Amino acid sequence: MAITTEMIKELREATSAGILDCRKALEQADGDFDKAVDYLREKGLAKAAKRSDRDASEGVVELYSHGNGRIGVMVEVNCETDFVARSEAFRTFAHEVALQIAAAAPRYLRPEDIPAEVLEHEKEIARARAREEGKPDPVIERIAEGRLEKFKDEMCLLRQPYIRDENVTIEKMLHQNIGSIGENIVIRRFARWELGESTN
Fold this sequence. Notes:
Elements: H1 5-15, H2 19-28, H3 33-51, E1 58-66, E2 71-79, H4 82-85, H5 88-104, H6 116-132, H7 137-155, E3 161-162, E4 165-169, H8 170-181, E5 186-194
Antiparallel strand pairs: 1-2, 2-5, 3-4
Helix pairs in contact: 1-2, 1-3, 2-3, 3-8, 5-8, 6-7
């Protein structure tokens, strides 16, 4: 299929990628717009991986209050330079992360942060539930593993589906921003408080 300048322009407007990158993406995707976007996203992820070893010590502590002060969130998001830390794209990303934390209430940043005893406790609950549902012994362990992965998806910020687009995880959104902003970005830590909740 012939790649027209109109197709390249449309893809460029949608992705902010370079002209040559857009042409190559459209060629790889045989002119299919959606496949070309996916190709560029994957390329963005590859760029993100190259940047992940660079030091990110600038950034912002984003504060967000929701529901007339019923929920409060504080999240530290880092980047490499003060210039990027002040940019609208970076600030918007940090704000979206804070909104995600307020809405989806993650407890951990990534699966590695979950204590082993919490994982074992969740696995035991999943096993007991599977037994109660009358599942045969040979499949109980597989069911428990599956439910444990679902628990990680719900409780780990980076694995949660983004509240505005269920097809994108926060980790994927992070990589897309690394690709488009052009610097390493790190979600360092967060805290979430809800009025009246007990601390344990």
